[in-house]
Write a structure and sequence with these properties.
It comes from Marinobacter salinisoli. InterPro entries: YheV. It is a single chain. This protein has a single domain, classed as N-terminal domain of TfIIb (Single Sheet). By secondary structure, it is an alpha+beta fold. Strand 3 and strand 4 form a beta hairpin. The longest helix is centred in the last third of the chain and has 22 residues. The protein contains 1 helix and 4 strands. The site of zinc ion has 9 residues, from loops.
Length: 83
Amino acid sequence: MPSPKRFIAGAVCPRCAEMDKITMHTTDDDDQVRECVACGFTDAVSEQPKPEVAELETRVNKRANTDDHTVQQVVFFKAGQED
Ligand SMILES: [Zn+2]
């Protein structure tokens, strides 16, 4: 059955390397197709999920957490005196 497009959390486009831009949907022929909304990249996916895909998502999720920590490390500096 055809399914609506849904985003794959943490997935990175193999072409433009944008994160969270990959959608996955199933065609009338029961083929799974992933598509990047950022650059238009499309890729047909076989019925059996590839192990390397899951591994990629895990790695991406870890990297996203690291980014969060980086954002919280705000560097403060003294403003110039204006007397
Ligand atoms: Zn892309």
